[in-house]
Amino acid sequence: MGSSSALPTSKRFPPAHLLNVNERLFLIDCGEGTQIQLRKFKIRFGKINHIFISHIHGDHIFGLFGLLSSFQLLGRENDLHIYSPGELREIIGFYDKYFVHELKYRVIVHPLGYKRKKLIYKDDWIEVFSFPLKHSAPTCGFFFKEIRQDLNLKKEGIDKYKPDLESIAKLKKGEDFYTADGQCIPNNKMTQPPWKLRSFAYCSDTAYDPSIIKAVDAADILFHEATFSHQDEVIALQTHHSTAVQAAMIAKLSGSRKLLLGHFSSRYKEVDFLAQEARNIFPETYIVNDGDIYYVERERSTDNS
Amino acid sequence: MGSSSALPTSKRFPPAHLLNVNERLFLIDCGEGTQIQLRKFKIRFGKINHIFISHIHGDHIFGLFGLLSSFQLLGRENDLHIYSPGELREIIGFYDKYFVHELKYRVIVHPLGYKRKKLIYKDDWIEVFSFPLKHSAPTCGFFFKEIRQDLNLKKEGIDKYKPDLESIAKLKKGEDFYTADGQCIPNNKMTQPPWKLRSFAYCSDTAYDPSIIKAVDAADILFHEATFSHQDEVIALQTHHSTAVQAAMIAKLSGSRKLLLGHFSSRYKEVDFLAQEARNIFPETYIVNDGDIYYVERERSTDNS
Fold it and tell me: Which domain does A180 fall in, by range?
């Protein structure tokens, strides 16, 4: 929803991203104007229960105050979980004191660690890990990964062997089926191959850091900041940001499938050339624009393992 | 730049208005996304040295943090004057502590009073007055009025009588001219009628309050909030806001020339009917949309007084 860096432009809002996992919405960073973008793109606010804040720089959180206020005005009652640097507690306390006096819903801040990759959230569908980035403030990236689900049954196998409920539960977990006369029917005769587990990795803001390669582990989609062009690599280094080429190296070395570039410096009037720089190293590179949507389609594995 | 009330919509940003007086820019309220609108409408940030904040509610100031940060990133050195409730000092102190650590330009907060109409700013061209509004937090409206300038000379009079520099200075101030032989040439033979003094009044947020009538004193343009329709007058009363009809009454009774309505509740999908309600009382009523520009043309007075 926001693809600029610290200085927004007329077409690029500050950083904000929304991940939809089976209609659960995860907001990642919340730059100024995020609630306006949510309106524009017709996203239902109420579905957002989890917000991930990479670091406490204004361009990544100045949209939070307006969003919290709008939740209040819209009568929110659900808890709101925010995964962020611990300072956010004080910032929200200050906001509460001056601007709402009493929030009618709970805001639970889960402080991030910055030493290693760490599981910070889990539900029935996904796990979310934070991992350290290399920036001028304590900063984390986030890795969202689907959890292995039960296997789906094959209609023809079920119709033929008519397993009882207990056997069905075992089949879904990957066990083989035994008929009344003791014949073993291998699991893959009775079930579909599982869905491949999809993943999304988010890296903003950060200098080039090879430790990210392992953390983003073959992501289906890797979002990596590309604030600068290759020719401005020195400025990237000085400001703890990355070039498009560096982002491409992380994508390539991590075995990721698709690279999205964002967080562009406002010094570049157009940014397509940044994708060109990256594609020399990693062809599946795309420039993100505010409002772009990327899907990761579900695919069957080639086997049941 | 922002015509919504507390909940922005996809087309209306939160409150923010810009007044241009001879290319000096005065920002009035600063809702979330103001800097994005400034970019969109190609306004040069650096020209803004004075910001007027009506009250400390989030929808009127959440754009301030991003704007201050962008000033910093753009290398601002000029002092920034903010006319606002005194609390803003603490809020900016907090912002400074968490988000910039040290602003490279001075922010001077001028606390408003809430008892009576008061001169709060003056330069060579205009005076600005604050006056109390009636809202759920201490709130002021603002009245911008041009100052009487020196008279312009008439070429034919100057060519004919060739006054010396001292006499010219007196003519510009409205005095008559005396020739070497003591003949009195009336001032209006030597000078143009002065420009009429233009004015702009800003009233948001407020319940209907007849004391506003005197404060906005025959404004060329009166901006008055019209959060609600006549049929929602009870809600207006409960929330300390106005209806379009009430705004029209203030416009009519104050002898203002043009009424702009804004700060619309997001409950109305379209708001043209609010202008219709107001026009029954005050025909020169207009709905504002984000990006609209209204001009007050300069007119000559009919006499030199």
Answer: 155-190
Asked whether residue A125 falls in the same domain as residue A140, the answer is: yes
B206 and B128 in one domain?
yes
Find out whether A107 and A92 touch, Cβ atoms under 8 Å.
yes
In this structure, is residue A271 part of a structural domain? yes
What does the pLDDT look like over A106-142, one tens digit per residue? 999 999 999 999 999 999 999 999 999 999 999 999 9
Residue A212: phi and psi, rounded to 5, are -70, -30
**Do residues A58 and A186 share a domain?**
no
Q: Which two tokens stand for residue B167?
A: 């006499």
- Which structure tokens are listed for A111? 């402080």
How many whole angstroms separate alpha carbon B182 and alpha carbon B180?
A: 6
Strands B221-225 and B259-262 turn out to be parallel
Beta bridge partners of A287: A261
Q: Please state the ipTM of this predicted complex.
A: 0.91
In a domain, B47, yes or no: yes
Same domain, B250 and B161: no
Whether A292 is in a domain gets the answer no
Q: Are residues A255 and A178 in the same domain?
A: no
| pLDDT tens per residue across span B190-238 | 999 888 999 999 999 999 999 999 999 999 999 999 999 999 999 999 9
The residue of chain B with its CA nearest to that of A137 is B99
Q: DSSP letter at A60?
A: H
Task: Give B227's contacts in chain A (Cβ within 8 Å).
Answer: none
From the list A228, A289, A298, A223, the residue with the least C-alpha distance to A254 is A223
Do B250 and B175 have their domain in common?
Answer: no
Q: Is B233 exposed, middle or buried (0-12, 13-18, 19+ CB in 10 A)?
A: middle
Same domain, A23 and A160: no
Distance from CA of A91 to the nearest CA of B (A): 8
Q: Which residues of A touch B (CB under 8 A)?
A: 6-10, 13-14, 32-33, 35-36, 39-40, 42, 56-59, 62-63, 65-66, 69-70, 73-74, 87, 90-91, 94, 98-100
Distance from CA of A34 to the nearest CA of B (A): 9
Q: Which residues of B make CB contacts under 8 Å with A?
A: 6-10, 13-14, 32-33, 35-36, 39-40, 42, 56-59, 62-63, 65-66, 69-70, 73-74, 87, 90-91, 94, 98-99
Grade residue A304 by pLDDT with cuts at 50, 70 and 90: low
Q: Which of B61, B91, B98 to mutate to test the interface with A (most CBs of A within 10 A)?
A: B98
Count the Cβ atoms, other than its own, within 10 Å of residue B297: 7
**β-bridge pairing B259-262 and A80-84:** unpaired
Question: Taking CB atoms and an 8 Å limit, are A63 and B99 in contact across chains?
Answer: no
Q: How far is CA A20 from the centre of its chain?
A: 9
Would the CB atoms of B40 and A99 count as touching at under 8 Å?
A: no
Predicted model pTM: 0.92
DSSP state of B96: I
Task: Supply the CATH number for residue A50's domain.
Answer: 3.60.15.10
Provide the number of structural domains found in chain A. 2
Active site residues of A: 59
Per-residue tokens: B211: 């004391």
- Nearest chain B CA: its distance from A39 CA (Å): 5
Q: Is residue A113 located within the same domain as residue A261?
A: yes
pLDDT at A303: 63
Q: Which residues pair with A184 in a beta bridge?
A: A178
Q: Is residue B164 part of a domain?
A: yes
